[in-house]
Write the structure tokens for this entry.
Amino acid sequence: MRKAFTLIELLVVIAIIAILAAILFPVFAQAKLAAKKTQVLSNAKQICTAQLMYVNDYDDMTPSLGVGDWTNHLYPYVKNEDLFMNPLRNDFDGGCLSAVSQGATPPGAGSDEPGCKYVGFGYNWGPIKRRGGGMLQRQQLDAQGSFYIPGINESQITTPANMFNYTISYDTPRITMGIQFLMCTFRGTTTAQMFFGGLYPVSYADGHAKGLQFSGGFGDPAAENNEFATPSNLSLITNYCYDPSVLVDTSGDTGGADGEEGHFPTGTTCAMLPAIFATYPHGTYSSGASSPTYFSN
């Protein structure tokens, strides 16, 4: 009677296990990523629902920025800081959600205090930096000379089912989904390296949420990290705005010049943006690029 496996038999078994592991591990990784994608889509939906409740309590006005970030305003409606997070974003030194549940104002959810995990979702300030047009008006000065950004009245939104509200973001410290802010801490060189390959969970003003493909780009000297991102379908850039006719230039902006005057000069409306971005070429990433270019892949 044979009492043990031969060396060859053991090697065959080990080889079979290794082959099975090579086959199954990518499947497990894909399943885990799919679960995270479902999680962030659910988070986007719940954040938007919280905003709808907030708006109902505050005379149809959206959350403003100045005394607290959007997370401070919406926390009482969710009671769960994890909803503000993206499981794929694990960088630190901003966000400070530990203070949100205690009703903190800045520094707090929007600070750069060391050791704090960044918030995962960005608020729709509008398409171009602090020029408004989104869920917020333009940046303004208060009576004490400090900057703040007031919300809008939701009755101004022409098509709530189309207007962006929140999506995941690389921005910091006050997390936004603006085109020139969205890629602030991104360290990749292709759209494929963005969260979920650029397929972002987006919530809309009417309360629904769905995945939307974004494309990244580089070479914009006035953008955070010199990089930007827009919906891949450029016609959807107008979904940043409560009204396509709203101005997104610097006229009347107390925040002053923002470096984007050449691309979006005086008189630029939200409806004009798709045609402007359509002029940007596609190319391979270059750290020394000085003109906006979409990633080639």
